[in-house]
Amino acid sequence: MMKLPLYPEKDYLPKYADLIDANAITKMRENSNKCFDWKGTQPYYPILERTEDIKALSTDYSGSAPVIGKRDELADDQFERFHQGLKDLMPWRKGPFNLFDIDLDAEWRSNLKWERVANYLDKAGISLENKRIADIGCNNGYYMFRMLKDNPELIIGFDPTIRYFFQFHYLNRLIEDSPLHYEIAGVEDVPLYPNFFDIIFCMGIIYHNQNPVGILKDMYGSLQKGGTLIIESQGIPGDMPVALFPNKRYAKVPGTYFVPTESCLVNWLQKAQFKDIEVFYSHKLEFKEQRRTEWMDWQSLEDFLDPEDPNKTIEGYPAPIRIYVKAVKK
Ligand SMILES: C[S@@+](CC[C@H](N)C(=O)[O-])C[C@H]1O[C@@H](n2cnc3c(N)ncnc32)[C@H](O)[C@@H]1O
Questions:
Q1: Which of 28, 146, 208 to mutate to test the pocket of ligand 1 (most atoms within 8 A of CB)?
Q2: How do the domains of the chain map onto residue ranges?
Q3: What is the fold, at CATH topology level, of the domain defined by 17-328?
């Protein structure tokens, strides 16, 4: 098995040893690294091995699609191998990216979500510069690459899904001295970072959790005093503070537990002790935002809604809206 440069020389643990329990985090890593020996993980190694010689000379994080490399930086055979590797790592759910001039148009136009958040942060005067940031459920790291534009002090992505780690790693290792860090870990591991982060992003996660108030409390605990949580959730329309608890699946997605209304999500945040809670955006999800593309050629939103009534999911529940909230640890 090839050796993965998982925790680069610039591992953040030594630098923050006074603030976090490096031994406990090392233990967490030892545990999660077991997934590298799983049978299902083995097909990823040849993809990495075939493209080990490929590095990007240029990057640009200022646009909707993070740009890593240009076509003329690679010989033809390198470009072909890289392109094939991207295909072998499908499906790509979050994007877009521009990689050596290949437009990777993922299932989600995650730029739309990021731009809603970034515009709000801008207006609210919340800067990412020199901040310690967590992206919980970071997937392939799309938002982390976007954050690089603002020069944060530290960005750690947490996501337990091994495929997404390999997608992230396939891109991140192209970049010389990348400052991004990725823990194959979940929101349940956040208590290992007490009073540590300035900003936590938790987007697309809470409705998948059995204990929404519990994870909000955990994130509260790992924010510094005055730190900000940006939470984005699937939700249902309505004025009452209630959450839908679907049987088996919601919009065909298994593992969906509590889908809140706007006021329900605000109440959860209050119960977790957050202050200065502000719902800054909510909208109905549209096909332009989540759809099948050549990089995700499986089912997408249009297959998840009732073909006769787009206000309902295929199971007959209210169709999802998306709710964006800021909350502060005082
Ligand atoms: C709906 S996606 C959201 C991705 C991204 N944050 C976004 O908003 O576009 C959910 C992500 O959560 C990850 N995930 C699954 N279990 C998790 C856990 N226990 N803690 C944190 N993330 C988890 C999945 O691997 C997936 O990448």
A1: 208
A2: 17-328
A3: Rossmann fold (3.40.50)
